Structures are given as structure tokens and as C-alpha cells.
Amino acid sequence: MTTRTAPPAGAPCWLDLSTTDEAASRRFYTDLFGWHANEPAAEFGGYSTFERNGAPVAGMMPAQGDYAGNDSWGVYLATADAAGTLDAAAGNGGTVTSPAMQVADLGTMGLVTDPDGALIWVWQPARHQGFLEYAVDGAPGWFELHTDRYEDVLGFYRTVFGWSTATEADTPQFRYTTMRNGEEQLAGVMDGSGMPDADKGWSIYFAADDVDATAARAVEFGAKIVRPAEDTPYGRLAVLDDPNGARFKLVGPNNR
């Protein structure tokens, strides 16, 4: 388990689910991960939050705008200056979809697409720092971007979000770079240009002590297996769609 009091600049700091069926999504994720679902807040357009052991772990909102009719998980990256980050994104090949907007005393948000069109939320924390525990069962475990414009996108995140990166693999078959905070890895970027079946855009992995058992429970609660659990050099991974079609992934210890 890793804990923090505030997210490092540029790090994934929050995630939320855009859903066409809030009741079904609330039921699925509370059953699967043991989360507690708070009631929707009318003053925030029906936005609600999930808690894990009494601490915020993720959010949920009715599908609308760019997400209308498409259940999906979104990723937020931390910044000390949301407006400045959006300006930098626009000047470095990105597109601002939603300008900086203060959310009460919680923080300031905005939405951009990177040079390959992947949606990314920007979050300038105030009272709401995002999730503070990760890489523990039932919490966010990893964040990963698959892109067809690998070099352009890496340059974008380095410049706009101040990423420090390390190349993990650089062969024609597999190119992968991680975002670092010191020695800690916080997110990954994979060259998907030679992988037509790869999920393009940002993916969210939830940590699971037992990936197989968690995937089996997910199916019991209405999810579909997209890619069965398998051991990899990076842990045991599985890909699922929740009952409304929102894709998520699981990561945990290998079986071998």
C-alpha cells in the first residue's frame, strides 16, 4: 500500500465513472470492492463519490457531454495551476474541451485532449486532494495510456504536466515509458501504433490481492471478461467491462 497527503504534480490523483445507469454502477462497485457510495450532490450536477475505508477513492457522474451514452472511467492529473496547464496544453498540440472551473472549495478542474485525442481531466486540488491510498486491494493500482503518437504524446505530458519519465522498453515490438516521482512509478505510456487491438486512451487498473477471485466476483455481479487473467512481467492482469460497458482492468500478484 502507498499513501500520500497530496498528489505530486502531474500524477494521476482522481478517477471518476461516467455512467448511464447510476444505480447499477453504484451497486456493482460497492459489491465488488466493498466501497461505500455517497448520495449524489445536486449542487454538483448529481456527482457522487465512493469511499474506501472512509476515504475518497473515486467519483461517479451521469453521462453527459463527451461521455454521453458511453460509460467510461476518466483520469485526473494533478496540477498547481489548472488554467496555466490548460493554456500549455493548447500550445503543445492538445485541445481544451472544458476551461478551468472552480468547484466550490474542493479545487479547480478542466478537460483537455492530448495530441492523440485522449481525454484527460486536470485537477488543481484545494480541499479535495483526490485519492490518498493506492496500490492496495480495492483501490487504484495503475494508470496507463495507449497511444498511436508515442513520441508526440510523451513530449506533451513532459511539457504540459512536468512529467519526469523513464524508458522501460524500446524495441519495435514494445515501447513503454513510465512517469516517475523520484523512484516511484505512477503511470505508464505504451506505443499502441502496432497494436490494433489495444485499448487506445487512458486505462484504469484496480489493485486486487487475488485477480482471479475478483474477476470471478465481477462476472457474478454482471461484468464481462474482455481478457482473462494472465501472469505477466508486470503482475497478473485482467480486463473487464462493467455491467454498463465501462472498461476497467485489474492488477495483482502473479500466481506463479
Automatic annotation (TrEMBL):
Residues 11-125, 139-253 form the VOC domain. It comes from the Bacteria. InterPro entries: Anthracycline_SecMetBiosynth, Glyas_Bleomycin-R_OHBP_Dase, Glyas_Fos-R_dOase_dom, VOC_core. SUPFAM superfamilies: Glyoxalase/Bleomycin resistance protein/Dihydroxybiphenyl dioxygenase (SSF54593). Transmembrane segments: none annotated. PANTHER family: GB|AAF24581.1 (PTHR33993:SF14), GLYOXALASE-RELATED (PTHR33993). This is Putative glyoxalase/bleomycin resistance protein. It comes from Actinocatenispora comari.
